[in-house]
Amino acid sequence: MEWFDLVSTYTPSSAGEPSWYDSFRLWADKSRTWIIFIQLILVYYLGFATRIRMPLLKNILLYLLLFVGALIFAILDVRLPVKSGLMIAIAILVIVKVRIKPDGSTRK
Q: Taking the model in full, what pTM does it have?
């Protein structure tokens, strides 16, 4: 049995030609790790990064550890709503970044 068959959480509604939604959900199941990896990168840069530029080895280590975390979250995503939780975290962090954005006007 294939890995995808073991972890797939979506079954198409019709046995015939899949709709665009069925195709999208099957694609999202197959690339679950990469979707979570991109979401983790967004959460890191929106919430935790103090500066964008780091030395090259630190960037490599950061992305390696984020990918290991994405693999762990992909395993947990079979039963828990990890992708949805990360989307909510991204939305909250974007709202916070927009609200804290300086106006440019200074008070004296």
A: 0.76
